[in-house]
Structure formats: C-alpha cells, structure tokens
Amino acid sequence: MRVFDTELHGVKRIEPELFTDHRGSYVELFDSEHYREVCAGIEFVQDDISVSHERVLRGLHGDFATWKLVSVLAGRGYALIADNRPESPTFHRWQAFLLNGDTRHQLLLPPGLGNSICVLQGPLVYWYKQSTHFAAGRQFTLRWNDPAWAFTWPIDDPILSVRDREGAYAAST
Fold it and tell me: Which residues are catalytic?
C-alpha cells in the first residue's frame, strides 16, 4: 500500500495493493495491522455502501466527529472533498479525485470535511468506513452549487436528493 498527502490538511490518498490475474482481481480494503500507521488512533465502527446510477451526485455531507475511509468498488466517480473546518489551514478549500473500481484507491478523511461522489460511469458502488455511528443531528450538508465555494463538477445537471439540492443542514459549526 502507498499513502500520499493531498492538498487538503490531513486528507490522505491510499493506493492499496491490487492483485490481478486471469480470473480477475483481489484487493484488501482494510486490515487494522496494515493500516495501523496511517489510521493511528482511529477506531472504525461502521461500514456503508451506496449504489448510484450515472449523473447522481451524493453529498457534500459530513460532521465534526467522524473519520471516513472511502473508495469506489465499481464504476467511476468524481469525489469532491471540501474542508469545512474553521480551524484548518485549508478551510474553505476543496479538492477533487477520480476514483474507480479498477484501482480501488481510497481517501482517508478527517472529521469536518464534506464528502461527495458524482457518478461518471455507473452503477457506482461507493464504500465508506466510519469511526462513529451515523447521527443525522450532527450532520452538515454543503450545497453542491454554492457560489461561495465555487465547486467545479464534471456535469451540469446532476441527479440530486432534496437535501443535496438545498443544503438542508447547517453548512458549518
């Protein structure tokens, strides 16, 4: 496994080892022994998977308590991550990553980041491992087209939930 820093403070991009042969491929998504150094002090308690069709944009969701380890298991997506931590040196900055089921690269996201995935090729299977159990009351949603953030998306007309279209939860602490 190879680990890289990103432009956003505390966000890591992880390239797990992928084994491929005539039968297909195999990848280890998480092993506490192998991830000990990069995930030091993080205890993951919940795994979730979303399955989405092309043009669906999920997020930008987050909270100020949860670490997330995310990856695309099938399909191809544009993961846009936004730093919503007022105390962060990269506050109010964002970075996008192309994730796909062929490489299964991962992102390790500290609490306070908005996490999203826009489906470029579907169906897209998005896996995320979380350090806390989901609690709607502590979630924030950043509106996908908020002019204050100046997000750049690969499509102009995404399929959105009401929450994502309207930014239904508070945008900061």
Answer: 61, 128
